[in-house]
């Protein structure tokens, strides 16, 4: 019976092909867990949805009566809260693969299947519909690339994400990177990167160890028309010093920098007071006898 079942599943793709469609609902992306990758103004909702459909890095679009059009990439979207039907002010559209031939009068049925994605660091994702939200759950290709969940697990480092303005130095390297998660992933996999800042929409500025001393943190979750304020920091907490709160993360001490980095630093520490974060770097050459 089990054998029959798996053969059936494997042969399924021969009979059905998925068609990519935009599925629109009344709802507003959560601001805290949402990291827009680009914001357009003066865009009618239908044009916004079409633009998202045509853009390979747009997975969710949001629009409201101010004619704003906001794109979210995969993994940069937590959930959308449902909007009361009569309001129809906030709309979200999800790019989904719909099995061929699925004809339904219930929009919710279109969210049922696990969406196989398999690119940009994500293996697949599911959308769960509850009474008040559309909740997205992602499967990361490499569990250690999931931004900051269990920083003291077996992963060599963790990417902590928060809002803020990048360091006031021009020592960063800026690249065109289409989504925030891909900027985080780029910093995570580059041994010399310790901090990345989405310094403009689709612009990722990366900094190496020791190239800055301070930066400003922000609590502002508003969608900014042209300057986002997203920061990711690579942290190396010891299991014995596992941070449990944001404040503990931003005050981590003596984090050991991997020896394969080429920037000449062995340890780093942070001190956060009000919105100012100060960094201190211990060069590799320092030896205590
Ligand atoms: C539309 O969304 C933008 C960005 O969040 C917001 O600034 C604006 O106030 C919203 N407009 C309405 C009518 O809600
Ligand atoms: C670096 O951090 C480790 C772990 O906390 C500590 O044992 C070591 O003394 C530190 N090294 C320097 C040079 O500060």
UniProtKB/TrEMBL annotation:
<feature type="signal peptide">
    <location>
        <begin position="1"/>
        <end position="18"/>
    </location>
</feature>
<dbReference type="Pfam" id="PF08277">
    <property type="entry name" value="PAN_3"/>
</dbReference>
<feature type="domain" description="PAN-3">
    <location>
        <begin position="147"/>
        <end position="281"/>
    </location>
</feature>
<feature type="domain" description="PAN-3">
    <location>
        <begin position="3"/>
        <end position="134"/>
    </location>
</feature>
<protein>
    <recommendedName>
        <fullName>PAN-3 domain-containing protein</fullName>
    </recommendedName>
</protein>
<keyword id="KW-0732">Signal</keyword>
<dbReference type="InterPro" id="IPR006583">
    <property type="entry name" value="PAN-3_domain"/>
</dbReference>
């Amino acid at each position: 019976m089990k054998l029959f079942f798996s053969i059936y599943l494997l042969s399924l793709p021969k009979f059905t092909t998925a068609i990519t469609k935009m599925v629109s609902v009344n709802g507003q992306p959560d601001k805290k867990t949402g990291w827009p990758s680009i914001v357009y103004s003066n865009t009618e909702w239908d044009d916004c949805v079409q633009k998202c459909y045509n853009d390979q890095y747009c997975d969710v679009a949001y629009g409201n009566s101010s004619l704003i059009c906001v794109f979210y990439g995969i993994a940069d979207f937590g959930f959308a809260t449902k909007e009361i039907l009569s309001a129809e002010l906030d709309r979200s559209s999800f790019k989904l693969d719909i099995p061929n031939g699925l004809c339904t009068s219930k929009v919710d049925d279109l969210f049922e299947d696990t969406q196989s994605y398999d690119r940009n660091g994500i293996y697949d994702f599911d959308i769960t519909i509850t009474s008040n939200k559309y909740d997205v759950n992602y499967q990361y290709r490499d569990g250690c690339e999931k931004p900051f969940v269990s920083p003291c697990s077996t992963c060599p480092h963790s990417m902590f994400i928060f809002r803020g303005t990048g360091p006031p130095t021009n020592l960063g390297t800026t690249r065109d990177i289409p989504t925030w998660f891909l900027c985080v992933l780029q910093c995570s996999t580059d041994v010399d990167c310790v901090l990345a800042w989405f310094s403009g929409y689709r612009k990722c500025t990366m900094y190496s160890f020791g190239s800055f001393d301070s930066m400003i943190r922000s609590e502002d979750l508003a969608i900014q028309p042209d300057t986002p304020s997203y920061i990711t920091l690579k942290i190396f907490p010891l299991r014995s010093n596992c941070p449990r709160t944001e404040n503990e993360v931003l005050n981590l001490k003596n984090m050991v920098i991997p020896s394969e980095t080429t920037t000449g630093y062995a340890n780093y520490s942070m001190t956060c007071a009000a919105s100012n974060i100060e960094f201190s770097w211990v060069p590799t050459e320092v030896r205590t006898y």
